[in-house]
Amino acid sequence: MDLLPNPAPLASKLRNTLVRYHSIGDGEWRVAKKTKDATVWRKPSEEFSGYLYKAQGVVEDVTNRIVDHIRPGPYRLDWDSLMTSMDIMETFEENCCVMRYTTAGQLWNIIAPREFVDFSYTTSYEDGLLTCGISLDYGEVRPNFVRGFNHPCGWFCVPLKDSPGHSLLTGYIQTELRGMLPQSAVDTAMSSTLANFYSDLKKALKT
C-alpha cells in the first residue's frame, strides 16, 4: 500500500495528461455508441491493455452546477446509479481530495461490485472547469469488492459560446476493472455506462 502522494505535482501532471487527451485528433477515435444525449468514442489506451473512452454531449445548465454534480461531494451519490457509496478519505484543499467509492454490479453481475480509491482534482480550464482523477493504491481493500483502477480520467465542462445556459461536457475515462472478466463484457459495459451517465446527469440537473 502506498503512502499518500504530494498533491501539487500529482494534480499538475494529471491536468497536463487530460489536456493532452483533449487535443487528440478526431481521426484517432472510433465511435463506440451514440444516443440522443451523448456520443462515445474509444481508442487503445496508452496506460493499459484496454481502451481510453471519450464521451461528449451538450448539457443544459451552467458549468459550475454541472461540475458540482460530477466531482466528489453530496450530489454525486444522489443521481449516479452506478455509484453505491462514497467517502472522502483525505482533503488537501477545497479542490483536491482522496475518495473511496464503490460501484454496483453490472451486466447481470458478470461484472461484480468494484471499489476504487481516487485522487480527485478540480481546476479551471478555458472559460469552464476540468475535474479529473486517478486511482491510488491506498487503504485496505474491503471484503466483497474487487479493487479497480482508474487511469487518468476527467471531465471538461465549458459553456457554449452561442448558448450560455448550455455547456459542452467532454469526458475521458479509462478504467481497469481487474478481476477475471471477458474484455468484450467490459467494453459493452463502458460504452453503455458513459451514455447513461449523461441521461442520468441531465435528469438530476432538472430536479
TrEMBL record:
Residues 10-207 form the START domain. One of its GO terms (molecular function) is cholesterol binding. Gene3D superfamilies: 3.30.530.20. Pfam families: START. SMART domains: START. SUPFAM superfamilies: Bet v1-like. It comes from the Eukaryota. GO terms for biological process: cholesterol import; cholesterol transport involved in cholesterol storage; intracellular cholesterol transport. GO terms for cellular component: cytosol; endoplasmic reticulum. This is STAR4 protein. It comes from Pteruthius melanotis. The lineage of its organism: Eukaryota, Metazoa, Chordata, Craniata, Vertebrata.
